[in-house]
Design goal:
By secondary structure, the chain is α/β, with parallel strands linked by helices. The protein has 11 helices and 7 strands. The protein has 2 domains: about 160 residues, no CATH class; about 170 residues, 3-Layer(aba) Sandwich (Rossmann fold), CATH 3.40.50.1470.
């Protein structure tokens, strides 16, 4: 028989702590996790609220500045400075209900109609906030409000899950949002930075497409070329390059707008009876983590984001007339795309222009007619 020695006091204490930990984990583990995640969400919610107030203040300050600038305008806003908070809180929740898509036939005209109505309502709201506002400043103010709306939406969604989790005591509900909170926070911070860029009217990463289009025109015609508005807030410029006719389409700057490039390309193809040899499109593209911001990728197809109505028009026009579509993409993440344009992105502009020049020479013959479409927000990008 082997006799065991008496355990040391510290070993007894350690064993008791271990068993206590096991006991707590079994009976109170979920409650501890719930408390931890709830505290994490509560802290994040405070940050999101501060971000919301910051962007809201930017909107208010911009409206007040524009009102002072337009003080000579006899028409006064229906919304006084004191009522701005209440108006913005309500307007930040402005919604556009997408049309039913169970039967996809005819959905594009429905989307076009909805977007037209939404745009009209937004323009009315901006004019109501700042009577007599110039179109350029109006577009920038719209962009600023949209950025503030995005931050407000993030705050309200996180608050919803936090309150719902507290009411139900559900660990799963709280854990789902808590595990994504870092990504959500990065997104919210990006929109705050975007709001600041829109406040000052600075070019953003998404302005790469229009910047390429403008640079291409200036490289060929340093003195400039007259711009024709082919459809709402969308211009076309005609230049000659290496015995080829190039129609350059982009949104009308320098106000913050994306224009209607799909409609513009469709109308231009119709005006030229489909006699287009090639379409070149330039746009920003979402990069993967690890990819270099500002790197260039080539491909084929309509390089344009959004709901899809503009893309549909480009694809329909190119398919019906058998026009090849080449795409040039500049890799960016969300922060790059909606905040002040970084050097790595601006440096890619000339590189893309040179690639397009080479492509025009190699893929088209003399006497050809091509379209170059610079897709993106034209804030800070002049003609």
């Amino acid at each position: 028989m082997i006799l065991q020695g008496q355990a040391e006091p510290w070993q007894i204490v350690l064993n008791l702590v271990f068993y206590a930990f096991i006991f707590l984990s079994i009976f109170y583990g979920q409650k501890i996790q719930y408390f931890t995640y709830s505290r994490q969400l509560e802290g994040a919610l405070i940050k999101f609220k501060d971000m919301r107030e910051e962007t809201k203040s930017l909107v208010k300050n911009r409206i007040i500045e524009l009102r002072k600038r337009n003080a000579k305008n006899k028409e006064q806003s229906e919304i006084g400075t004191k009522e701005l908070d209440e108006f913005l809180d309500e307007f930040f929740q402005f919604a556009m209900i997408e049309p039913v898509s169970l039967d996809p036939a005819g959905i594009i005209p429905k989307i076009d109609h909805l977007l037209d109505v939404r745009e009209s309502r937004w323009e009315d709201a901006v004019r109501m906030l700042v009577p007599g506002i110039a179109p350029r400043e109006g577009h920038n103010l719209e962009n600023l409000i949209e950025a503030a709306m995005a931050v407000d939406s993030v705050y309200r969604v996180v608050r919803h899950f936090f309150i719902q989790g507290k009411k139900s005591g559900s660990l799963i509900l709280v854990m789902q949002i808590a595990m994504q909170i870092k990504i959500i926070q990065q997104m919210a911070e990006a929109y705050v930075k975007a709001a600041k860029a829109f406040y000052y009217g600075q070019p953003i990463g998404d302005a790469l497409g229009p910047q390429v289009a403008a640079t291409f025109v200036r490289a060929i015609q340093p003195a400039g070329v007259d711009a024709k508005e082919i459809c709402k807030e969308t211009i076309v410029q005609k230049v000659e390059y290496k015995n080829r006719t190039v129609h350059v389409i982009r949104a009308m700057g320098p106000g913050g707008t994306v224009g209607r490039p799909g409609e513009g390309i469709k109308l231009l193809v119709q005006q030229l009876d489909g006699k287009i040899d090639r379409i070149f499109m330039v746009d920003a593209a979402m990069k993967l983590e690890g990819d270099k911001s500002g790197s260039i990728v080539e491909g084929v197809g309509a390089a344009i984001g959004g709901i899809g109505n503009e893309k549909f028009k480009i694809e329909a026009a190119s398919t019906d007339n058998n026009i090849p579509v080449d795409a040039y993409l500049c890799k960016q993440n969300l922060v790059d795309a909606i905040t002040t344009m970084k050097k790595s992105i601006s440096m890619s502009v000339k590189a893309i222009v040179e690639r397009i020049k080479i492509a025009i020479e190699k893929r088209t013959s003399e006497g050809a007619t091509v379209i170059l479409a610079g897709i993106g927000n034209t804030i800070g990008i002049g003609i």
